[in-house]
Amino acid sequence: MIRALILTHRWLSIPLGPLFVLWFATGIVMHFVPFPTQTESERFAGLASLDLTAGLRSPAEALAAGGIDRPIRIRLMQRADGPVYVITAHGRSTAIHADTLAAADVTDPNLALSIARTTAQRRGLDASGAAIAARDDYDQWTVPNRFDSHRPLYRIALNDSQGSEIYVSSRTGEVVLDTTHFERAWNYVGSVVHWIYPTVLRKDWAAWNIVVWWLSLAAVMAAVTGALLGPIRLRRRKARLSSRYRGWHLWHHWAGLVCMQFLLTWIVSGWLSMDHGRLFATGHLTASEDAVLTGAPDWTRLAAAPLTAVPGEAREIEWFAFGGRLHQRARRALMQQQISVLDGSARHIVGRFLQPAEINAVTAHLRADCARSIEVEPGDDHPFTSEVPGAPVHRVVCGDTWYHVDSASGAVLEKLDPSRRAYRWLYQALHTLDFPTLLAHATLRTLLIVGLCGLGAAFSITGMVIGWRRLRLLGGASRHIG
């Protein structure tokens, strides 16, 4: 049995040793420089004020023109070539010119360049040297699945002092991502290595999923066998424990015993990051739950919703369904918005956010045991935040299942059943140390992450040295026999 553990640990650790070192080292980089993404604050900063004085067609007419029966959301935004409706449905996004109802795909590179320039200027960036860099389905920073409905993407290089690049959707004309030279450089030695994320592999999600899942599982087996062997290979001498090894093996043995608990939890939780529904729930709504929370609204009623009734200087108007009722969300600034319920031609103002009474009335139809919603407070064990800073997120508890509703947008952020709540602790908390206490003490959390990952990297290096020596011995023996 011990022999089998030794051989398993040895021949898994030799090829995986460099990967262990890279995982720990890149984990430190990722803590300081995460993978590039566009925040809601950045997106909204690039929006222009809507021109509602022109004769714009209704969102219902845009739906008909786009041939979309069951949208999720409709947004009206001002683009460089005029106002457009962006219609989001399951798996796709469509843009329709708000005045002519013509398709608003971005087929002209010059239009993409103009959109990028105006957006960059509104964000305070220097766009004087902007130029088209590429038009691709995938590159290293746009491989995530959330970009699928926007492909292909125009990549525009601003050629500014930060090396900024902006990505424009060819489907909707929205700016969906921006990166800087600093982010790209550090992510090549951070997230790209850590997630085994080269474009050629990651653009095929199924292949990437299988490859990384099996590699991670092999790493778990290497760590578990090592953890089992560590105590077994100790021996007692004169009332004290000592190692059976010398040299690098001794360092590896003692370092493994010291960091065994962290190593196991970090490697296992890293493997669980690739779970994707294999062992734990995904947090997605079922069709019946979605039918209750979204409902089946009559989108044709939007034909009677006058855009001129929108108060103030809006930069974005959004329509969404919640509980079967259509809502209009007029946004003047990131934290300034007004939600109204549309009933035919009437518009009843709700306020800045959805009210608890409406959320409770809708979620009561999910199950008979749903309690009244409560706001998720800072420091909660399951932290959820709205896309609008300061907007309440409501937790509705229905038996053993929780639903988190963003009061700013009506979106259900996640469904947490017992399986998903366990996953939150076993993956997210253990892998990124986002325990509420540590989140409240950012410096302590950073010190722990850097210290523990550094310890893990040092320990893994000792294993690499041992593995390299073992391979050299085998190579020398083979040459001697030959």
From TrEMBL:
Pfam families: PepSY_TM (PF03929). PANTHER family: BLR3280 PROTEIN, IRON-REGULATED INNER MEMBRANE PROTEIN-RELATED. This is PepSY domain-containing protein. Keywords: Membrane, Transmembrane, Transmembrane helix. Coiled coil: none annotated. It comes from Bradyrhizobium aeschynomenes. It comes from the Bacteria. The keyword Transmembrane applies. The chain crosses the membrane at residues 12-33, 205-229, 250-272, 447-468.
